[in-house]
């Protein structure tokens, strides 16, 4: 028996007159090649693929999302995401849709003193949205840094509590020529100290002293990132959140700044 001999429930009429903003699949992992300014990087994306569903339709055709992912090697860039999203909407016979790809993005970094190279991984989510014909490309970055507490340093005879922090930036990309690497560097420089994948003892000494000389609250970091991103070429508004995984509390410290786009 093939599909033609079976009832197509998804295509049947729905009488409730309720449109659905997003329906599709999520938490599906797929091998992906990410192209960043001509450099290819193999990674694994967790995908969330959805379309809008009109009020009169009972269901979307979910198999088609998986079919599209498996049509050929998944190769994406900031530049090509809008086309991929539009192809998805067409395949699903929809009018709007969103394609979200979350993946680890790796940057080779040389340790600050020894110069030894190693990979640093950053959580990146690229979001292609098409609504009313106009594509929007969203970006979410989670960048780990070190933070050292200015209060703890000021009140203590020696030492200061410090911890890993996550700086999360969400923005709409106004210029596909935006370099993820440059943006990540601009943000991670606003912590008490950036992180590296590999540290020899001279590097560890450098980071320990650099962070101690550069104490920052979450408030300091979120303000300094806002300053660094104000007018940053290729961004259309942004939201920043900073979370300190406090080493002296069983809770985090957290701060947020929103700057709406045009
Ligand atoms: N819309 C919808 N589909 C579901 C749901 N649960 C499972 N499905 C999927 O429905 C799919 C089958 O529907 P379609 O994708 O339309 O498959 P098809 O009709 O054989 O293929 P097309 O002719 O391309 O539509 C299967 O992949 C199921 O996994 C659900 O809650 N909603």
TrEMBL record:
<dbReference type="InterPro" id="IPR003801">
    <property type="entry name" value="GTP_cyclohydrolase_FolE2/MptA"/>
</dbReference>
<comment type="similarity">
    <text>Belongs to the GTP cyclohydrolase IV family.</text>
</comment>
<comment type="function">
    <text>Converts GTP to 7,8-dihydroneopterin triphosphate.</text>
</comment>
<protein>
    <recommendedName>
        <fullName>GTP cyclohydrolase FolE2</fullName>
        <ecNumber>3.5.4.16</ecNumber>
    </recommendedName>
</protein>
<dbReference type="GO" id="GO:0003934">
    <property type="term" value="F:GTP cyclohydrolase I activity"/>
</dbReference>
<dbReference type="Pfam" id="PF02649">
    <property type="entry name" value="GCHY-1"/>
</dbReference>
<dbReference type="InterPro" id="IPR022838">
    <property type="entry name" value="GTP_cyclohydrolase_FolE2"/>
</dbReference>
<keyword id="KW-0378">Hydrolase</keyword>
<comment type="pathway">
    <text>Cofactor biosynthesis; 7,8-dihydroneopterin triphosphate biosynthesis; 7,8-dihydroneopterin triphosphate from GTP: step 1/1.</text>
</comment>
<feature type="site" description="May be catalytically important">
    <location>
        <position position="149"/>
    </location>
</feature>
